[in-house]
Specification:
The chain is about 0% helix and about 50% strand. The chain is mainly beta. It has a four-stranded mixed beta sheet with strand order 1-7-6-3, with no helix packed on it.
């Protein structure tokens, strides 16, 4: 009985700069892959994701020759990663003041986000916010990770500058003029 090309299951992955190599296709030798220009190895189906934008792509696996050749397609969907920002009410605060930040996720290929903020000394608040009371000599840094509904990840960090309090000089002698 002849063997038929089986490209394997379709694949959906997050947008990362890496080489992806197909597995679970058969027969695993003597066939060839064809597809977008990102294909770097026709024997294994390896392709360079950094050369592809998010979207859907078709890769075709062919096995056999002439009238005995069979082929099968594998769809690859590349999901865009979510955007992520940590926004400070003020990037510079004075010694002893409170700094407040808000994490905001956007874009990607899903509208569901799980945001995690972490950093030494920070207090987590509702609505993806965090706060810290700063001290001179510290440079508080907060980190955040967002994972969208497809499992795609983005990371961000932010540092807050701590400024010294201004020096105030008060003279102990008051000079006044008698205007009477």
């Amino acid at each position: 009985a002849p063997e038929f090309a089986d490209a394997g299951a379709d694949l959906a992955i997050c947008d990362v700069d890496t080489i992806v190599e197909f597995t679970c296709f058969s027969p695993s030798t003597q066939g060839t892959w064809a597809g977008p220009a990102a294909l770097v190895d026709a024997a294994t189906g390896a392709f360079d994701m950094s050369a592809l934008d998010p979207g859907s792509y078709t890769f075709t696996y062919t096995y056999g020759t002439g009238t005995c050749a069979t082929n099968d397609a594998r769809e690859v969907t590349i999901w865009s990663n979510p955007g992520f920002s940590i926004i400070a009410d003020d990037l510079s605060v004075c010694d002893g003041e409170e700094a407040v930040v808000t994490a905001v996720a956007f874009g990607g290929s899903s509208t569901e986000y799980d945001i995690t903020l972490f950093g030494e000394g920070w207090t987590l608040l509702p609505n993806d916010q965090a706060s810290i009371v700063v001290s001179l000599g510290e440079e508080p840094e907060i980190f955040g990770v967002v994972v969208d509904g497809n499992g795609c990840v983005s990371e961000e960090d932010l540092s807050i500058d701590v400024l010294p309090l201004p020096e105030v000089f008060i003279l102990d002698t008051l000079v006044a003029c008698n205007q009477s």
